[in-house]
């Protein structure tokens, strides 16, 4: 891979993929709607000679054509708000795939695990797609759209991440907890504090995603991006307090608490239906990655938390 475009480059996953590509000497076009955020990204990378940016709207496929015409791979990291998923997600997929197909490009979609629904075993890529939530059902439709036979020239793959954390993270369930502790303020934890859960450190995820994207035989498939192991909310809070020196209260929010908050907050209203993930602790199998790509990068939680919290404390 010599050149790539990253759609949604200023988001949590977009930023780490940009950084990973640059570390491999790949020429990168950061694509997004906000000139201010894109210029901040350029500054963050000290105006790297191989990093440029392009303004455009992923819902208007023609705005992507010029930026993506000479690239080897398109990385689709843009997303829609929870409360807009039903109305906008399929429109996003249609637009991005239309651009990739018109150009005959490889395209990598970064997605989550809602398609699986309740876990019946350690989740490999063949785990049944039997979602019981509206978000999960929409994500299944999204996958079907991406792999539709109507696309004659594009080659797509999907990478699936569990919940995540890291210096660039913006909208993960763990984010309000870490931001509150880093600021020395009362904060919340979404879900059960005792359930061991999987979190992937975003720089590790970026390494795996780019490794997968570089393999020609990876396309046309789903790929898991597993974390470094399981950790409970209680352990995360203890670790974060040790790193920051903060002892402010962290309030765990149950499904009922979030349902109540959802009466006044549109985002929290949408979180209610996926609370099963915080109770069941869905775990992704990395066997396919290890067999076909190589060793899974596993930054220890302590190191990942230190790097994340250090940045949050000095924001």
Automatic annotation (TrEMBL):
<protein>
    <submittedName>
        <fullName>Short chain dehydrogenase</fullName>
    </submittedName>
</protein>
<dbReference type="InterPro" id="IPR036291">
    <property type="entry name" value="NAD(P)-bd_dom_sf"/>
</dbReference>
<dbReference type="InterPro" id="IPR051783">
    <property type="entry name" value="NAD(P)-dependent_oxidoreduct"/>
</dbReference>
<feature type="domain" description="NAD-dependent epimerase/dehydratase">
    <location>
        <begin position="5"/>
        <end position="225"/>
    </location>
</feature>
<dbReference type="Pfam" id="PF01370">
    <property type="entry name" value="Epimerase"/>
</dbReference>
<dbReference type="InterPro" id="IPR001509">
    <property type="entry name" value="Epimerase_deHydtase"/>
</dbReference>
<dbReference type="GO" id="GO:0005737">
    <property type="term" value="C:cytoplasm"/>
</dbReference>
<dbReference type="GO" id="GO:0004029">
    <property type="term" value="F:aldehyde dehydrogenase (NAD+) activity"/>
</dbReference>
